UniProtKB/TrEMBL annotation:
Protein name as annotated: Spore coat protein SA
Stored InterPro entries: Glyco_trans_1, Glyco_trans_4-like_N
Keywords: Capsid protein, Glycosyltransferase, Transferase, Virion
GO molecular function: glycosyltransferase activity
Domain Glycosyltransferase subfamily 4-like N-terminal: 19-172
E.C. numbers: 2.4.-.-
Domain of life, per lineage: Bacteria
Gene: cotSA_3
Span of domain Glycosyl transferase family: 182-354
SUPFAM superfamilies from the UniProt entry: UDP-Glycosyltransferase/glycogen phosphorylase
Organism field: Polystyrenella longa
Stored Pfam families: Glyco_transf_4, Glycos_transf_1
């Protein structure tokens, strides 16, 4: 039996930016656009996500959840907008690319005929009402077992839950000989040792831990340079103060020339091949996309055990895993690892091999295709 031919799937996105969740679904869509599904996306009509959808030739309809002043629209207005988009686009299935979008779809699930699915890409405590909303969907797709376990313990239905790891394009993200161009860009000598921290600058990502550890190490390893790749999105005062704290850590030690804020970069595959070590100090991480990408290029990785990270990397085999929030332990690990080129190579090679077997994007795409096909069979 085959699924209905050319089934239309409506993809709903909340934000205009490209973060891990957006990159993960886009990577899968590249595998699926030429297949049995026709995609249409409801998304903000501007920004990097919109541009990426256009490159994939996925038509879009505008979905703006905030007013002109950036305030979220009221619930009833959002409900009516989503119902109108669904009515006009006539999809066979509707998918939300985030937990919050899944909740919005859950609120209207009883008023539409189409099956609805959503990705769970967050490990956050939910209210009873949020859990009830999500439990109205036909399938919840958790990006890690850790994410699934967390939410099931708090009331999300086990019967609705499927674990499907994100995948990585192991051809796009593959080992390359460092060109030295990033060091040239930053005006650094060839013998510099680059430690990269890649991700949105926010408290949850724990960048203060790697900043503190690297500051302490520079006296012993003056060739060390720390690169923060990513932006701060939150405008909250505490988030602004947190970003300034990262600058101050190096300024107060007289080491400002050893930290570099690169902002948002679209050339992550290039950067991962240019740095010597990826350090990921997240306090919570459902399934860190940059860890998949870093492992795929064979970059040695030190990361926290938060969330689903232990599902990506095997401690002391394909990465070194530490508890979150421990700058002292991170300093100790880096003090041993930075001069050990052989150990770095072992970790990087093992990580690459693990990605090729367990996390290729083709595997993730096949899993998502199977979930959607199953629901479409039921519907037909």
């Amino acid at each position: 039996m085959s699924a209905p031919s050319r089934s239309r799937i409506l993809l709903c996105f909340e934000y205009a930016t490209l973060n891990g969740g957006e990159h993960s679904l886009l990577a899968v869509l590249k595998q699926l656009v030429a297949g049995e599904f026709d995609f249409i996306a409801a998304a903000p009509p501007h920004g990097l996500l919109h541009e990426s959808l256009q490159k994939l030739k996925i038509p879009t309809v505008p979905l703006e959840l905030c007013d002109d002043e950036g305030r979220k629209r009221d619930q009833e207005s959002i409900n009516q907008t989503l119902k109108s988009i669904i009515q006009d686009s006539e999809p066979a299935l509707v998918h939300g690319n985030s937990l919050s979008m899944g909740r919005m779809l859950g609120r209207i699930a009883g008023e539409t005929e189409q099956p609805m699915t959503a990705h769970l890409r967050d490990i956050v405590k939910l209210s009873g009402k949020a859990i009830d909303d999500l439990n109205q969907l036909d399938r919840l797709i958790a990006v890690s077992q850790a994410t699934s376990d967390f939410h099931q313990k708090r009331g999300l239905s086990e019967d609705l839950m499927t674990v499907l790891h994100n995948g990585v394009d192991c051809e796009q993200f593959r080992p390359r000989v460092p060109s030295g161009k990033l060091k040239e860009e930053l005006g650094l000598p060839a013998e510099s040792f680059l430690i990269g921290n890649i991700g949105q600058i926010c408290l949850r990502k724990g960048q203060d831990i790697v900043a503190e550890a690297v500051c302490r190490l520079i006296e012993s390893f003056p060739e060390l340079h720390l690169l923060f790749v990513g932006e701060r999105h939150s405008q909250k005062a505490e988030s602004r103060e947190y970003e300034q704290q990262l600058h101050s850590c190096f300024e107060e030690a007289g080491l400002s020339n050893h930290v570099h804020f690169l902002g948002y970069r679209s050339d992550i595959a290039f950067i991962l091949n240019e740095i010597d070590l990826l350090v990921h100090t997240a306090q919570q991480e459902p399934l860190g996309r940059v860890l998949l990408e870093g492992a795929a290029v064979g970059c040695p990785i030190v990361a926290t055990t938060a969330g689903g990270t232990a599902e990506i990397l095997e401690h002391q085999v394909s990465g070194i895993l530490l508890p979150p929030g421990d700058a002292d332990l991170l300093e100790h690990v880096l003090r041993d690892l930075v001069p050990d080129v052989r150990r770095q190579s072992q970790l990087g090679k093992a990580a690459r091999e693990r990605m090729l077997v367990l996390f290729p994007v083709e595997k993730s795409a096949a899993g998502l295709r199977a979930i959607w096909r199953q629901l479409l069979y039921k519907q037909s």
